[in-house]
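Example record for the data management plan.
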Amino acid sequence: MVRTRYEPGSYGDLDVFFPSLMCYRETGPDSWEPYYCLVKHDIRYADDDSATVMATRHLEAAFAAKEESGNIMAVAVSLRSEGYEKLDKFKIVEEDSIAENHRIRLDQEELEKSLRRRVEENYPDHNVDIKISRNVIKISEVLDEFIAPYRKGLNTVEEYRKFMGVAVIAWNLAMFPEEDQPSRVNEVIMSLDAETRSDMRVFIEDMIERKKKYFSHHRRRILDYEVADTITGWNFSVIAEDGVI
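Corresponding structural encoding:
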């Protein structure tokens, strides 16, 4: 009979974690390998520690039921009653990776806090209820897809920041009525250095056409954006007119 043991932990990434139990099977003296993972999907936590604490409580309760009944099957029955389901395909993440994910989350939170403060200062009368979207597509994800064909050739975070500024301008210009767009584009072009106007006009007009062709159903004007050089690379957040990040 194969010996097994359980270790409590969490299953997830960044700000969504579920209680989990990793089952190991014995392969030799003092040698164990991952066998399967049990995950409780009906409750989630924003951090892995809270999810692990809950998994530990459920595991302790399951083995307490076993001691009380004298039946090893009580462990499986107890965990099943708590909503744990078996995963055959899983990836074990080392502690260093968990710490890195935590730093990524903190980087993103700081980026969004900075952006929120600036929008609140610049639009005091706009009545923007700034919130992070959980149930709709984030405008930052849409903008990331919008700029995808143009990212090649950007070598520094400052170049990326300037590029994002142009992309946001083009996105918003595409929102104006067709008859107003030429004059609006001219206003932007005339504010630039003379030697860059011709190239920038082509670039902005191309992005406007891309917006109208592939993203016309997205009608949220972008109020502001923030770019940061983080451990995962150049990240950005944006806030749209309805306050959704």
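Summary line stored alongside the record: The longest strand covers residues 16-28.
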